[in-house]
Structure formats: structure tokens, C-alpha cells
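Summary for the steering committee. The consortium agreed at its last meeting that each partner would contribute one worked example illustrating the joint modelling workflow. Our contribution is presented below. We chose a case with several input lines so that the handling of multiple components could be demonstrated. No manual editing was applied between input and output; the record is shown as generated.
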Amino acid sequence: MFRAMIRSGPGEEILGADDDTDKRFRPFGSSLPAFYLAVALGITSDAKLEIQGEKAQLLRLDLLKSSKHFHSFRQLIKSKWDAKDDRAVVDMMVEFAEAGVRELFGMYQKTGTIDFYKISQKVE
Amino acid sequence: MRITKLQAKNFGPYRGTIELNFSGDKNKTLWIVWGNNGAGKTHVYKAIKWCLYGWDPSPGDKIRPATNRDAWDLLYGTNLDQIVPPDPYMSVYLWLEHEEEGSKHQYLITRRVTPVVANPRTPAQIDVQLEVKIDGVKKENPREAIEAILPVAASQFFMFHGEEIRKMSLRHGEDVKDAIELILEAQTFRQGRDHLVKISRQIERDVDEERATVGELGNYLSIKKQINEKIDSYKQEIDGIQKEISSRKERLDEVDRRLRSQEASQILMGQLDEKRQQLNQAEEDRTSLIARESDLVAELPAKLILSDLKQVLAKKEQRHKRIEQQLEQIAELRGARSLAEKIAGMERCICGTKITSVEKAHLKGELGFYAEKLKELQSKLETEDPTYYEVRDTVTAISNSRLDFEEYKRDRDRLDLRIDELRSSIKGIEKDLAESDMSAVRDLQRERTGLIQEIARKEERLGSLNDKLEEQAVFLNKVEKNLKRVDIHTNVKKSLERQLEIASAAGSAFEDVLLELTEVKREVIEREATSIFRKLTNKPDEYDAIVVDENYDVAVMNKDKKLLEREKLSTGEREIVALSFILGLMHASEKDAPLVLDTFFTHLDDAHYTNIVTSLPDFAKQVILILTNVEYQNLRERASENFLQRVAGSWHAVRDQGRKESHLESEGELVPIQVAKVH
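What follows is the complete predicted structure of the assembly.
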């Protein structure tokens, strides 16, 4: 679902596909803002989805840990849900993201875009 | 190498210790041990071989390590041992002198048997230990130390019983080949070859692995080819489209110029240009605005979790405030206590009034109260949450960041509206232009619209192709990284294949070299054996040489250069041929060894006997003869003065029938006077 909404990043087969939808019109520039937005939506609606297997393998941990918002999300998750270490924090973020991405993807499928203004209305 | 001393304890028929000192004048090369049958003379020879090898190898035996069974047979396997109770504390000490590269080294070789249990019944119940000291230093691998100084063939061919030379005189072929190979230490060659074969097999396995890896990685070559084909086709298409766009734009400029040149449309064209410029500007502004959206989207997640973070902070803040209050109370109490302590130490108040004992007692009570209260407060004092300040800073930072989607939306709506207005205005002007009377203008306008649409379509395709090209460049980079690995593995594979070739060539070279050396050695042995044979034979006028034929049979060649069949030679002659061959072997060997001959002279006639006795002192640097009393008497009778002068020492093995044990009597050097006495 993430891959369908981002303009660049991993996930393509080695030779790509000629008939792929034009990526220039996808709503997210890269996977990181899409992931964070999905996590935030999961947290605000307090919805998590269990993931089978190794969660940390789904994303580049080093990239995530060095990103701007990781610190804020870690503080919240450690304080509110007692995550004991970074590994647990990331696992929980992946579970929130899994729920949040469904909301984003639903919107994208229905309208062909993401209404960020509408999402920003949720900010209190 | 020379034996300088032998000391044996409880060995064979000897009780206690026997000692044979072989040191002395080096020109005297002969040592003799003689005695009746069963007196124990052969056990002197056995003691030397047991100490060196742990068993008694004969010609034709395969070399093997010694076992407990060998020592057990020496202890319990003779008739004598049935008479004399065996003593399992058997030991032999052998002192050797070895000269190497101009320096002499003293070897002490010890082999001893000790019982593991009180009355051993099986070989497993004894322990056999071998120890080698070189110049007083104990060696870790005693067997290797012995093998390093003795020719491999010495155990079988340089120390033997007369019976063995008789067997040897009947057996040739393989035995002779084995003997030559032993002299060449072919076993070491073969071990080297076997080791090489093992290495070759390992290299072969490595080559197979590398081939498989190169094969697997080889797929990347076809992937690279496909990517390059795609890149080429994209580039070709891009090139074509760019050319088409360029030609369409040129045509558009031409159409515009013509339109402007039409008088009636000049004003409209001016308006059209202005509107188009405005539209371009509005579209650029819109692109910049959309870039702002990415920044806002990046900030959105943090803003969304702000309220949750604030809740967390509120809880932490409550605790923080509680702690601050507690600290405040503690500070207040400490101040009050400090004041009370000061007053309690004063005689008079600040106003000059004397402080009474009642007041002091009251102050003391107050101090106690403060101390108790402080203790209570300190025990209740909560610890500060280390994340409180961090969370507070984060909440402040997120709160301060701007997230004005409303303003963004307003700006975007405004721009979209402006763009729509401009487009419709341009359409209107274009329509006016098209509706003008002039058919030329109409045609030009139609062509112009078509060209603009075509250029837009082509530019869109160009953008998409450039994206794809970029993607393929990323894939190509990945594939090339893997292809570098292919180069590395190909080089490793080539190097391993070369190593395999070298190892295989070296393996066959081992065999070739061994064959060549065997041939060379065979010729040397023939030459040496012939030289000895000519001194020993009783028919020097008939026999010319000793020949080792292609089947490794030892034969005699007569003066007519004809090979004589072995069966045509007498038993004594055959023994002389065998002895000549063995001495030839000894001379061809690159390492010195003492020659130990046990009961050797039985079948020899007078002429052979005399020849041997004459030549014997020069056969080797050290010759130990074990003789029966009859052989000894014969020797004394036939030996020349020269022979007797070369005898360094002799021992007489004597059997004490009463005590059922043997002992050695040293007789020292043999002198002609003593010969006279014997007669």
C-alpha cells in the first residue's frame, strides 16, 4: 500500500515495468513521510494491527532512527505504552502504521489523492 | 652414525644389566659377540634392533610402528623365557654418535617396558616407552629423531641374521625393488604425492564452488544486457521526441510570427502573448506552492501526536510539581533548623535578653522535630523523571512549528482560480482569432492549437521517459556492483584452475622422478655391488659383475657378458651375491649405518670365508659380528693380522646352566698372541 502512494524508493522489480502508473502524480515524495503519517493516524485513532514475522525487516531502521520525528515518537511510545527499548518502539510504530496506512490508502483509492488539509483538521 | 654403547636390563636371557662399550679407536671398525647356541649372543643384536625400531623387521617386511605385542613376544615368546621367569622391567639404552655438517651429536635412545598391572597377562597390560635425547635434550617425537639419522633400509638390510641373507639369496624381484625404494626413502616421496593428491582434491572442490558461483553471477550479465537495451531504447525514444518537440516548437514560432504579421490579428496576438506570460507565471507559482505542501506533510505527523504528547507531559508535570513542592518544604525546614541551631548556641538574644534554660530546652525539642520531619520528607521525596525535560522541549518545539494548511489551501485555490481564468481568457482570444475573417489566420490558429497539444503530449512522454531512464540507471548501478563480484570470482576460479594444473603436474612428476631416481640408484647399486662381489667371489676369473635386471632380479654376469641363472649358482655363491647386493645398497645409501651380521658365515667355503674376512673391516664404518663358537674359532684361525688389528673389542656370551641365565664376558681387543693361545 505504501509503495502505491510514493513517487520514489525501493520496491521495484529489477527491470521495472513499462506500463506502471505515472509516479509523478503520487501523493508522497518518499516512504518516510508516508510511514510517519500512517503511524500518527494509527496513534490518533488508537488502532494497531499485528504483523507476522520480523517487523524491523519491513523498513530501513537506520534511516528511521536518524529521521527528524523519531525522537518525538519514541518519547510518546515509551511514556504512553511502556516500550522498553528502541526495538519495541519500532515494532509498535510498524503496528500503528499498518492500521494508519489503510486509512490513507482508502482515501487515495477513492479520490486519487490524499487530502492533507482534511487530515490536518484532526490536529487539536 | 656409530653405536658407542649398549646397555640392556633384563633383556632375553640376561638378568640384571649388560653393557657393551663400542667407543674407541675409529680405525678399529670390528666388534665381535660370540658364544654357544642359546647363550644369548643373538639377543645383543635383538637389543639393538628393538631399541631402535621396537621390533625386528626382515627384508620384505613393510615398515610399521612398533606395538606392545612386539615387546611382549620378546619378554615371553622364547624358549628361554619358559625356563627363566620373565621380568617385565625390560629396558635397552643405546648411545649413538652422529656427525652432521661437521659437528658431532650424542644420541641416547631408551626403550623400556613397564607393567601396568602386577602380573601382566596380555600385551595391553604392559607399557612400552621410547625416549630420545640429543645432546641431553629430550625430543618430542622420538621416532622421527631416529628416522632422521638412520637410512630407512637399515632396519631390514643392514642389521640381519644369517638366515635372512639365505632367504634373500632365494628371493629377488619385488624385494630388491623394495630395497632400492627404501634406500631412496620412496615412502616419503609417496607421502608427499598423497599429500599433493589431497591438496588437488581440495582445490578441485574449490574450483567447482567458484565455477558454480561464477555461473550464478553470470545471470547478471544478461540482466545488464537487458538494462542496457532498455536504456538505449529509452534514450533513442527521448532523442526522437526531443527532436520532434524542437521541430514542432520551430513550427509554432513560425506560425506565431505569421499570425502576428496579420494586421487584423495583431492586437489579439498582443493580448494573447500577455495572457500566456501571466499563465506561465501562475503555473510556476503553483509549482512552488506544491513544493510547500511536502514540507507541511512532513510536519503533519508530529502535529497529529501533539495532543497525546501533551497528555504525557501533563502527567510528568504533575509529578515534577509535587517534587518541587517537596523540595521547597525541605528547604524551608532546613532554614528553620539552621536558625534554631544558631539560637541554641547563643547565650543572649539579639535584643540582649538572656536565653533561659526553659527556652533552650524548647529549642532542643524543636531541633528534634525538624530533624524528624526532614527525615520523613526526604524519605517521601520522589525522583525526578529523566524524560520530563526532553518531553517538555519536544512539545514546545512541535507547538512552535507552523502548520498552516488553511493558508496553503487558500493560496492554492486562489492560484487554481487564476490559472482557470487565464486559460479561459486565452481560449476566448484564440476563439476570436479563429473567428476572424481571414482564412489564413484561421488555418494558422488551428495549426497552432494542434502544435501546442502535440508538444504538451510529447513533453509529458519525455518526463515519463526520463523517470524511467533514471530508474534503469539505479538498477544498472546495482547490477554492476554484482558484476564486480563476478570478476573477482572469475579471477579466483582461474587462479584455482592454474593451481590444480600445477598440482596435477607435480603429482605425476613425483612418480616420474621416483622412477628416474630408482634407475639411477639401481646403476649405483650395481656398480657398488659388483665392486664388492669381485672382492668376495671365489671365481674372479669367471664372474664379471652383478646385474639388477628390469624385473629387479639380481643376477651374475660372467666374463662373456652372459647372465647366469640363479639356480646354477651354489648356495654359498647365492649368499655372496645377496651380501654383495646388500653391501652395495649400504654404500649407495646417503646415510651411514652400522652393519650388524648375526650367524652369517655358516655356508661359506674357505675361499669365500677368507675373502670376506679380508674385506669385512672395510665394509662399513662399524661392523658388529655375532658369531657361534664354531664361526668364531674359524675366524680366529683364518683371520689375518690385519683383520685382528681392526677388531676393537669382543664379548663372550656365556650361559650359566645352574642359574639358568646368561652373562657377557668382555675379552677386549683380539691380538695374534691370543690366537695362538686358542690354537
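The CA atoms of residues 4 and 26 of chain A lie 8 Å apart. Chain A has one domain: 2-17+31-113.
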